[in-house]
Amino acid sequence: MKYHIEVHGCQMNVSDAQRVSTVCEKNGYVSCDDWRESDLIIYVSCSIKQKAEDKIVGHMKELSRMKRKNKRLRVGITGCMVRQTSTQDDEEKDKILELLDTVDFVFRMEDLDQVDYILREKTPNDLGRKFGDQDYLDIRAKQSSGFRGLLPIMTGCDNFCTFCIVPYSRGRERSRMMSHIIADAKEMADQGVLEILLLGQNVNSYGNKNDVYDSQFSDDSKHHPFTRLLMELNQIEGLKRIRYTSPHPKDITEELIQKMAELEKVCEHVHIPLQSGDDEMLKRMNRHYTAEHFLSLIRMIRKHMPRAGISTDVIVGFSGETEEQFQNTLRVAREARFDLSYTSMYSERKETYAGRFLNDDIPKEVKNNRYHELNDLIRQTSAENNQLYLGEIWEVLVDTFADGVAVGKTRTNRTVRIATNEGALPGDLLDVRICKTLEWIMDGETIPGQKARSIRSEVNSLQTSDLKVL
Question: Could you say which of 72, 169, 192, 449 is the most buried, measured as most Cβ atoms within 10 Å of its Cβ?
């Protein structure tokens, strides 16, 4: 029997899909790239925007036709759309099953350990079990890349931003034991993973809500658990790069940034969500910081890592946003000089505070104009920041190689294209001289005999005054 998993949304959902693959294969299913040839189709859903849910619902008519041809076909949904693990046979079931009769079962990700029983057409109650008995993140993930690995360290959220559905879909914050994370990272490194991406809804709040230490890793009373985790991961032989996403600004500390600058394997890139640059809007969003505090974090990052890449998230057109408030966002973005922004137009989610109590009152045309105005500004600052790289040699981790061109990332998360006649394989580390810069990408060439690795210490020792003023 064949299974196919379709992933919508964030990198945490990609990691979750890898764990779902482990359970499917444990039950005798074989992975299939073509969903039309599958006997089991599972959607890992996203609820951040209505469009993400609509994509899955839009597949149901085709799946209904497939079911008439293939009587063995079963359809499941997990991820942020699901509130109650259940099947069509349950008396009390998730509303998805009531709305979509093509779907056979749904499950919350924390109930992944019980999907074994659903795939065997039993329920946990048949066997005296309850859903959610174990931490699903301890289920081994089926890795899909030979050189990159996704490593969740916590899940859930306690912040309750008024626009966000995550606390309702993922539940409250829960951090994994540090020893379990380190064991997973060592296993990845042994399998050839060079770069790991630490994942969490608020990844830098790791260890804030529950104890993450045991006899193997005890609390040293000196470092925040997330900083300590980076220090321990930095010692793993074979790993070359460590990244993380997404942090919350309220939990970014100078201790963390200092350690990032010191630890050899931790990349000089910080993704720090802004959402809005107006204090009143930030209050309405329940973000727990001010625009000035956010800018102080940007200054702190550049103090310790002057050449760090900095990306962000911004929502335009949130409930009641005035033109003046949007201009405040532009002001902050201009001063922060972001390299990249994942900008979105506000999309109301009914289960959130904003969906229940605030009006989605900004016209679509206004949202669209603000989206493009902010994007144009980020395009400009990205192009200007990239100019600093001209003539420098940087280490690039290759993602793809085709038709004589390799494409990869610097440690600061810049995308680089490299024309090379020698060829390159995904996972190769190349020392590349940057010879051309554009808005979102740079071009480079390999320089035999010259190394980029020494640049790291030089870059982090630069003072802000050493940087070109643009």
Answer: 169
Peptide bond into 246 cis (omega under 30): yes
Do 15 and 54 reside in the same domain of the chain? yes
Tokens 């658990």 — which residue?
Answer: 225
Looking at the whole model, is its pTM more than 0.70? yes
Q: Which of 235, 272, 241, 239 is nearest to 257 (CA)?
A: 272
Q: Is the same domain home to 121 and 200?
A: no
List Cα–Cα distances, 389 to 30, 138, 433, in angstroms.
Answer: 46, 41, 9
Q: Which of 76, 98, 127 is the last residue of a domain?
A: 127
How far apart (Å, rounded) are the C-alpha atoms in residues 178 and 208?
A: 13
Instruction: Please report the beta strands in 317-392, taking only residues with DSSP state E, as ranges in sequence order.
Output: 340-345
d(CA 170, CA 153): 14
Residues 277 and 410 in one domain: no
How far apart, in whole angstroms, are the C-alpha atoms of residue 384 and residue 470? 7
In-domain check, residue 135: no
Q: Which amino acid appears at position 3 of this protein?
A: Y
- Structural element, H or E, at residue 357: helix 353-357
Phi-psi region of 430 (alpha: psi -120 to 50; beta: other; left: phi over 0): beta
Total residue length of the chain: 470
C-alpha 297/C-alpha 31 separation (Å) is: 44
CATH of the domain at 434: 2.40.50.140
Instruction: Give the pLDDT band (50/70/90) at residue 255.
Output: very high
Q: Quick one: which of 128, 87, 141, 132 has its CA closest to 110?
A: 132
Find the DSSP H helices in 138-190.
166-170, 178-190
Q: Give CA–CA dist 75/6, Å, rounded.
A: 11
What is the pLDDT averaged over residues 295-318? 97
In three-state secondary structure terms, 293 is helix
Q: Are residues 235 and 360 in the same domain?
A: yes
Q: How many domains is the chain partitioned into structurally?
A: 3
State the pLDDT at residue 133: 43
Residue 187 CA to residue 204 CA, distance in Å, equals 23
